[in-house]
Amino acid sequence: FFFGMIVQWLARVVFTFNYTKKMKYSIALFGGVAATAIIYFMLIKGLKDSSFMTPENKHWIQDNTLMLIAVFFVFFTVLMQILHWMKINVFKVIVLMGTFALALAFAGNDLVNFIGVPLAGFSSFMDYTANGGGNPNGFLMTSLLGPAKTPWYFLIGAGAVMVYALCTSKKAHAVIKTSVDLSRQDEGEETFGSTPIARTVVRISMTLANGISRIMPSGSKEWFDSRFRKDEAIIADGAAFDLVRASVNLVLAGLLIALGTSLKLPLSTTYVTFMVAMGTSLADRAWGRDSAVYRITGVLSVIGGWFITAGAAFTICFFVALVLHYGGNISIIALIGIAVFILIRSQVMYKKRKAKEQGSETLKQLMQATDSTEALQLMRKHTREELSKVLEYAETNFELTVTSFLHENLRGLRRAMGSTKFEKQLIKQMKRSGTVAMCRLDNNTVLEKGLYYYQGNDFASELVYSISRLCEPCLEHTDNNFNPLDAIQKGEFSDVAEDITYLIQQCRKKMENNEYNNLEEEIRRANDLNGQLSLLKRKELQRIQSQSGSIRVSMVYLTMVQEAQNVVTYTINLMKVSRKFQMETEMP
After folding, report:
1. Could you tell me the CA-to-CA distances from 222 to 14, 213, 229, 234 in Å, in that order?
2. DSSP count for the chain of H helices, then E strands
3. pLDDT in tens, 60-100
4. Minimal CB count within 10 Å: which of 61, 92, 241, 436?
5. Cα–Cα distance for residue pair 504/500, rounded to 1 Å
6. What CATH code is assigned to 359-582?
7. Which residues lie closer than 8 Å to 462 by C-beta, 6 or more apart?
8. Would you give the DSSP letter of residue 40?
9. Using an 8 Å Cβ cutoff, are 364 and 434 in contact?
């Protein structure tokens, strides 16, 4: 993170965001340094431990290292300058070299992680077969003390499997997507939320930055600001950042991985690459005040996940070895079965989670749309998908809350409350992404349809919060083991609750199918339900006056009735504004 931040800051000061005007001669020096560093770490440092290098060649390289570095530096500097004069984008050349360097660094590190353990087991088995005396408990693994001699066909086979896995694995693509999203230059949909630690880090950083700004001369501040004008950034369509940062990310990550591998340090290639990308994005001022807290939360989540994984792997390995030692062949078969089950279950759960995220595909298309008409159609589709999810949540959790409370099911109420907290975060994310997406529409469309869109978001938010206000007192009442509703109250409310659930279900189906022609029927049903709920409130107030029941029970019952009315009202209002937003012509 540190080296990524420093190198990117220096590169941006030299080239600025409008790098095409600032690389007349500096690009040759930058390319020469990058190429020489790649050659040094990848070839000189990397090949010295290769099995096909003879002792004479190793000794010659060691004695002439400085001369080789000087020759490579001069050669690549001149070559980069010639390429620049030939109107070839040198940054693309550096990115290409960096890609190969990073691939070689990954192969040098991850290939060992991938086949090191099984090859050690294979070598142990072969050594025991040749020299073992029949008692494995008394046979020492001294054969593993020497350097490994891996057959070339094992290396090629393992490399082919790794390449195939990287090309086809959706999880590997998700890792890359997370890294790119957290380091992108522009604003967009934030994957992560806000945490107290992230807010504290941002607050401390702002205080420190303001202190430095006060003591820095105004001339220096203006000069540095002129080097970081993000509105001049040259970013290709669909790219998250420009070629300057791409070259630094690839070259520096490859060099650090190669250096760590040559020093035999235990490291995660993905971790190093990710942290370099985060450091360069911070130096590039990609973390603005509106996004910094989400980016930092994402970085801390990824770092925490890696450390938790390391601790879990360490602990689980201990127990697996223990089980294998005492369980014998039966434990081996059982653990293989458990491993297969976990892999299948993980894949199934991942597919289900990706299916839920399909709506984001429409948002991606919307963010890339250039035509206002196309953007409006995609916006309507995205809105239908998001609001349908809200109605689906409302249908499920309203029914779950009411049913669980009437049957004093504490677990069901807790599950409903947890879903509500998660839905509140999704609502915030939906509002944020929708506001960014509205920028793709032209001014006339925004003025004509924008109000309906924002009203729909507000009604969706109020619908979620109404269910939250319904669930919270029911959960508290049941958790404290207070008296339940009496039979009359249960009978009255359960009948109306079924009709409310049916209303939400019908509205959801209409929204999913984009059919609003017969919406008047749902409006009439909603008015009838509100009338019934008002009648239930009057009846309960009469029971309170006659002191025929518990005041505590009456309070939670009145809250339920009131929030049920809100659910009905916000549901039908959501449908009304959604109809106005979705239809080509205005509806009365």
Report:
1. 15, 11, 11, 21
2. 20, 0
3. 777 777 888 888 889 988 888 888 888 888 888 888 888 88
4. 92
5. 6
6. 1.20.58.220
7. 566, 570
8. I
9. no
The DSSP output letter for 43 is I
SS3 195: coil
Q: Is the Cα dihedral 325, 328, 329, 333 positive or negative?
A: negative
Give the three-class secondary structure for 83: helix
Kindly give, in sequence order, each residue whose CB lies less than 8 Å from that of residue 295, ignoring residues fewer than 6 positions away. 182, 190, 192, 278, 281, 286, 287
Task: Please tell me what DSSP assigns to residue 234.
Answer: -
First to last CA, the chain: 57
Amino acid at 495: D
Task: Assign 242 to helix, strand or coil.
Answer: coil
Helix (H, G, I), strand (E, B) or coil at 167: helix
Backbone angles phi, psi at 128, to 5 degrees: -65, -40
* pLDDT mean over 144-173: 79
Each residue's pLDDT tens digit, 329-369: 899 999 999 999 998 988 888 777 766 655 567 777 777 66
The closest alpha carbon to 277, from 230, 241, 225, belongs to 241
Whole-number Å distance between alpha carbons of 38 and 104: 10
Are the C-beta atoms of residues 177 and 364 closer than 8 Å to each other? no
For the record, the structure tokens of 519 come out as 């919406």
In the chain, list all ranges with CATH 1.20.58.220: 359-582
**Which tokens go with 346?**
């993980």
d(CA 304, CA 302): 5
Residue with tokens 């020469």: 32
Q: Give the closest residue to 460 by CA, choosing from 518, 540, 392, 363.
A: 392
Q: Could you tell me how many residues make up the chain?
A: 588
Residue burial 197-207, b: 16+ Cβ < 10 Å; e: rest: ebeebbeeeee
Place of tokens 């999810």: 389
Closest CA to 269 of 256, 251, 282: 256
Mean pLDDT, the chain, rounded, equals 83
Phi first, then psi: give them for residue 425, nearest 5 degrees. -65, -40
Contact call for residues 104 and 120 (beta carbons, < 8 A): no
Dihedral sign, CA of 546, 547, 552, 557?
negative
Using H for helix, E for strand and C for coil, what is the string for 99-133? HHHHHHHHHHHHHHHHHHHHHHHHHHHHHHHHHCC
Residue 52 CB-half CA count within 13 A: 4
Q: Whole-angstrom Cα distance, residue 128 to residue 140?
A: 9
Q: What DSSP element (H or E) covers 416?
A: helix 410-437
Taking the C-alpha atoms of residue 172 and residue 166, their distance in angstroms, rounded to an integer, is: 6
- Cβ pair 409, 403 in contact under 8 A: yes
